Amino acid sequence: MDHSVGQVAGFAGVTVRTLHHYDGIGLLSPSGRSHAGHRRYDDGDLDRLQQILFYRELGFPLEEIAVLLDDPDADPQDHLRRQHALLSGRIAELQKMAAAVETAMEARKMGIDLTPEEKFEVFGAKDPEEHAEEAERRWGGTATYAESQRRVARYTKDDWKRMQAEVAAWGEAYNAVMEAGEPAGSEAAMELAEAHRLHISTWFYECTYEIHRGLGEMYVCDPQFRAYYESMRPGLAEHLRDAIDANAERRA
How far is CA 167 from the centre of its chain? Predict the structure, then answer.
């Protein structure tokens, strides 16, 4: 059974002009002609057109498609395997891009219900989005970052206020522990380290002991995080890091 150029254009979703062009460059020449000289395409021609459109969709130039299809050592199964691998790779890339866009959209929702005045009321001079770009640069592609953004996207002004109050109370308690000269391995310091871990798990993402130890090291090594904890009390960053390590070891 053969088909006219118009029928094939309709099947494949291409224009008649495209099929004429493919014929003109020798990429897809119809197997037959009608008595009037019109192009007629058989099933083999349709199979070749399908291969062409696959490769074209994947971004191959027409010259390379011709070389691939006319390779005497390749059979149709080879083409299908190659296309399957290429399409699987494209799907993975698109899924990764979609996830990145979704994460970016969620990240932009951070504090979406807060006006500038409300943000100042909750955070004072500290903008909650001040470190958002840095966080996205560091952890943007991770599941923990995505989970954190999903959670914070739902927080209201009252949620942020409650979170800030917890942080302030924790800071006062830790300052008191250091004021009393308690070592990082003391029960009081380890309990506050555990409270710190649970705060992260409650508000942002599931913070395992392994993740928590990594964070503790970052609080000492990263200038921004170190400055934050040192603003509560000089030496707190190292003390907290050591308390986090001691707490993780005793619960292992």
Answer: 29
- pTM for the predicted model, two decimal places: 0.50
Distance CA 120, CA 126 (A): 8
Residue 4's φ and ψ, nearest 5 degrees, are: -75, 165
* Confidence at residue 128, expressed as pLDDT on a 0 to 100 scale: 46
Residues 84-115 pLDDT 10s:
787 788 777 777 766 655 655 554 554 445 55
- 33 beta partners: 39
